[in-house]
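Q: Could you fold this chain for me?
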Amino acid sequence: MIDLSIRHILFPFDFSRQGQLVAPYVTALAERFGAHVTVLSVAPPAYEAVPVGMGGTLDSGKHSADWKRALKCRLDRELVGQFATVDIERVTDCGDAAMRIEDFAHNCDVDLIMMPTHGLGLFRTMLSGSVTSKVLHDVRCPVWTAAHADAQHAPMLPRSILCAIDATHEGVPLLQYAALLSKRLGAKLSVLHVVEPVSDWPSLAHERALQEETRDTASIAVESMLSSAGVEARTRVVVGNIVGRAAEAAREERADLVIVGRGAVREPFARLRAHSFGIIEQSPCPVLSV
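A: Sure. Below is the predicted structure, expressed as structure tokens.
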């Protein structure tokens, strides 16, 4: 049974503009699901004279209690109006950002993490691309990432969702998750599967025939997965590079959210998971990695 309960959302925040742009999306989902929101800010494990907005700087060694209080005060002042309508808690921590995010998610029953792909605000190491990549790799709960861009154009709640699936056994629960989320949000759902090119010589007739045969086989497999999942959705099976084709399909479908699966990349045909961060970087809209 697929569980779509979203009771606790974790929002890692580094005081950057990118983090501020994500806040309305956090609010919208929290309101829709009645979820509690934790805003988490993680300071680096060792730094000197980090400005905290308290009229100067604080030394990390001698005045650790002082900078923690100052950081908490600043965090308490951030995004007050944005989160006025949701149940919110603000938490500060110190250490490796990815590890602290992962530990909090695992120990505090987080159902969803929402974060930008890059931030580089007050603590430049907190929401770098490498931190986001590590969180995506290590945490067990779904992770929502904003479009990898300077501005966010998707609506706060998606109206069109594209679910990109691999030809693996994990495709069925992913389809069920996408269908449940689409229904809960009142969004249209479409499904994408990308077939790897079988030849470097597509101009040759027999190579084109082989590619079309492979595509037909994949189409049958995808329809079988949809039937097993009990999901009805418009389906596209295309040939090409997984990252580029996923981004292209998201634009053509005018998707407001792309859903991809996360799992062991060693599993046969798990090409999509091996390229998940590339999809996130090129997607024109937010990506939910399940």
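A (continued): The two ends are 15 Å apart (CA to CA).
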